[in-house]
Design the sequence.
């Protein structure tokens, strides 16, 4: 029996996430507490996106919805309050995320100065525009259209708890420390699946919601970064490489599945819900 045990969203791409007990699932990802998953993103002056891969201190930037603002905390800084209300006068800024070019809304010089100081690198904060749709690649969806905001490629990332438990058993056997789930930055964590069973699922359904895993998640160095300290440590990719190199992904090391929403967009997910699963044949 598959049980939804964690719901997480990341208001600012590659910064700290927030765990919630319920969330609306939209075609473009989760929505809770007045914010969307990956609704904001940090970029260089010329519009290229920033992540923990190059700036591990982003893990210490902690956004939290607070009434009509998104309050952002970073060590040694006064909190920044970002208005949740849409700024119709926000300047348009063209940004680059992987191979996609997207028109975003610039959040202004004060936010840029705050984040530049917090990360000790020049950057600007942008917000996903309400009039923009960023389609996902249909290469992995069998032509089914989908969309996302500033996530790397797909609106949801699913990991089975058993998959992390299996990795941690291998890490401990190798004399290493077990890792918490936050190193892998999922949106949905499901208990009750077999190890890496999410790789083989056609759908997960609950009520009228249908979630379809479509593409294995190729892993980068971010799981090596302690999300509580922002300090990189041993990378689990060497252990994952021994059993999780995926020929469908040209040998990339994968853990978890990128998913799209194929039915029930606008419905609410809750912790503890039972999910019906269907294996892909």
Sequence:
């Amino acid at each position: 029996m598959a049980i939804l045990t964690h719901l997480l969203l990341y208001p600012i791409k590659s910064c700290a996430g927030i765990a919630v007990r319920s969330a609306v699932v939209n075609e473009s990802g989760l929505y809770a507490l007045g914010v969307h998953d990956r609704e904001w993103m940090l970029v260089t002056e010329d519009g290229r996106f920033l992540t923990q891969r190059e700036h591990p201190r982003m893990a210490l930037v902690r956004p939290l919805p607070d009434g009509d603002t998104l309050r952002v905390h970073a060590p040694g800084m006064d909190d920044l309050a970002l208005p949740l209300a849409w700024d119709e006068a926000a300047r348009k800024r063209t940004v680059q995320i992987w191979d996609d070019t997207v028109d975003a809304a610039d959040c202004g010089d004060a936010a840029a100065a705050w984040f530049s100081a917090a990360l000790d690198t020049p950057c600007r904060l942008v917000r996903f525009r309400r009039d923009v749709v960023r389609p996902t690649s249909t290469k992995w969806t069998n032509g089914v259209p989908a969309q996302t905001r500033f996530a790397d490629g797909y609106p949801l990332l699913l990991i089975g708890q058993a998959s992390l438990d299996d990795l941690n058993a291998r890490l401990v056997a190798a004399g290493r420390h077990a890792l918490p789930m936050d190193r892998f930055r999922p949106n949905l964590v499901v208990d009750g699946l077999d190890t890496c069973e999410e790789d083989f699922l056609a759908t997960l359904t609950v009520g009228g919601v249908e979630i379809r895993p479509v593409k294995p998640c190729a892993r980068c160095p971010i799981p090596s970064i302690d999300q509580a300290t922002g300090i990189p440590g041993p990378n689990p990719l060497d252990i994952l490489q021994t059993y999780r190199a995926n020929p469908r992904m040209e040998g990339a090391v994968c853990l978890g599945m990128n998913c799209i929403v194929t039915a029930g967009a606008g419905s609410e997910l809750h912790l503890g819900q039972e999910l019906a699963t269907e294996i892909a044949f």
